[in-house]
Design a protein that fits this description.
This protein has 511 residues and is mostly helical. Among the domains are: 5-20 and 174-293, no CATH class; 30-165, no CATH class. 50% of the residues lie in helices and 2% in strands. Strands 1-4 form a two-stranded antiparallel ribbon. It has a two-stranded antiparallel ribbon with strand order 2-3. Helix 5 crosses helix 6 (150-165) and helix 8 (193-205) packs antiparallel against helix 10.
Length: 511
Amino acid sequence: MKKLTAAAAAIATALNAAALSANAMFENVPAGRIWDEEIEMFPMMENGDLVTDIDGNGSFDLTDCALFFGYTVSSETDETIAENIASIGDYDNNGEVDRNDAEHLIRFYLLNNGLKIKDLSSESYTDIDRQYTVEINVPCHFDSMPERSLSDDFIDELSIQSNYLMASYPTFCEAELSGDLNCDVNGDGTYDYADLNYLWLYGYNQHFFMFSSLPDEEKPAVPEEITERCKAAYDYVSSELMIDWFYEYAEMYCIEKNGVTSKQFDEAYYDSLLEGSGKFALAKCLRFNCNEWLSNSEYTEYNGALFNREFTDYWKILESGEAQLPDTDGDGVIGITDLFNTIIYSEDLQSASGADASVLPKNVWKFFSENCDINGNGLSGDVHDLKILDLAYSFNISDEETDELYGSFQESYSAYVEMLADINGISSVKYHPEKLSPACTSDVDVERSGDANSDGNVDLSDAVKIMQALANPDRYQLSCTERFNGDVNNTGDGITVGDAQMIQTRLLDQG
């Protein structure tokens, strides 16, 4: 059985790297955000089993994607190309060539190439651009046939799909390198963590992202000229590049240029850059993102599409009675301590701690490290196994049990960690709840952040994630933490459409 030391070595190597090559981060992100059916579909496109060369010129590029997109939105298409699309374009094998197939083709391109600034210009599509009309029927009003531009609509679709995939990072880098985007907001001639800290504080002040555990004290004083540069950077990325992930990309770019070490995960480091800024959780956000982006270990690599499939399969096995949720500590009861143990081991995995440095009893550690291959990939206790258990334990608890078990989750969790720490004579500092995302609870007095997709921000993507989870739970799952954070409307009643609406209302009010 592979041991956790492999994960520890890989993470240590990543954290001490001097710097990464341009766009290195990009390679680790979009692949984990594809849809379930694309897990098999994209390799088939790669090896030619599914044809992607729509115009038949011997290469696959954005022109092929635009032609396919035009065909599915009723834009007039060359007869030969239309026949080709009709014959080879049913990528999802549902019996028809439709908009979903066009989205798959666009996403396949973005996954392999990312997005460039020129891709967002209608001038890139002059050879195939055309006007077309689409019938819109508005109840109680009238039918209309507005004229649309294929290039403009295609660019909008590119933007949507690149934001879903987080595939527009190359665009961000291109703009920064050209000087159109200036992330050196303190004007010292170097883009580094001091600039990142200012950008973070600006975003927090504008409520672009928030954490429920952050204090409400007055924010650190930021010079007006720096605030103006921060605003200009955010505005440019949003309006000109149509990017929803400005801060994540700013983080990626900073890490690539400067490297990252353990000091960047320490609040005191940000206080040294700007007094009073350490408490605003940049260290926590950076640590969370680095665990995802810089993971060179098979134990910590996370793939969202694969996870959705694995959890669905595991839940079906549980419901059929073919398997039971594991009793992690062997106490004969499947309950809250099993979830606590999973959270603790997750923290150990991400911090590359070994058994001797963990508060977990040796038998619990052994269960996770040797007998917890939930998804059957040959790795016991990897990040997918732990996330599957997190979600499964929370789903397994009835509404009545939820009130009893989760009414004071933070206090119960802290008390459990302290008890284990006392028994084992090990410090419990690293397991402090403030270092983790807020855990699942029905306590209506605990503030909910609204971060339903665990990206550290609160924006429209969280409302989208909630709606997706409600409409298509087989594809989109909310973890225990995400269900807690997303329950912002009538807190304690679970995830509903009202939560998505409340997030949107908050954002509009803050705008």
